[in-house]
Amino acid sequence: MPPPPSKTPKRTRRDGAQARFAGGKRPRPGGRGGPRRDTGADGPHWLYGLHAVEAALRNDRREVHRALATPNAAKKLEDSLAARDLKIETVAPKHLDKLLGPDQVHQGIAIEVAPLPALDLGDLPDCSVVLILDQVTDPHNVGALLRSAAAFGAGALIMQERHSAPLNATLAKTASGALDLVPVILVRNLAQAMEALKERGYWLVGFAEEGADALETTAPRHPLGIVLGAEGRGLRELTRKTCDQLCRITTRDSLASLNVSNAGAIALHWAASQAETKS
Prior knowledge:
The chain contains nine helices and 14 strands. The chain is α/β, with parallel strands linked by helices. Keywords: Methyltransferase, Transferase.
């Protein structure tokens, strides 16, 4: 059975409102050194599942160390694997079960990868919509939100370094490849990052059950930042105050709230459809 990836020393990050991308452009040189928290993906780790692996293989910023696959899975991703000039280690499904855990749906393939490179908030690409998460810690929710962000054309996902979901294999599998498609920026101070976005012209809309404006009667302004909070607690007070507007998604009384990933998908579709209507 192939051994799990070895641990590597933690790297450093830059201070202030600077951040780490999981996607996007290459980092700018320079910047002051400072401690960076462990996100669960600071060293080599395994990505698995056909969509997640294919997206990682096609991402030229993603460093890939090893590839383990069943013959059938290797055949399905033959072109992407060949482009990497990787030596495929042929394994049986049970070997991947032992490596990744019996409950992981690996679809016959896993690759050992390095974390994606770090970038600053200033490297945010020009885009009309960004998704901002306030202490959403469930990797399944964040993965699903990344998938929706990719589907509806959001340019980046921004969340706080602390009290956020780790950028690990669970998140990558749920994101179905979107972790290697949508830039993920981790910031030290979310409110400061939101203020920086407002200085760049972004209109920040927070979503809360008690929001003054109903989403279906609201026209978004672009560039737009969609701000979502953790389930249960929702948006923190300072995050609410930093938003330009608070909206609510109208639901029936019998089901007053939505899962954050569902709310995010609705909000992203709203932003995308309104933009298409105006264009």
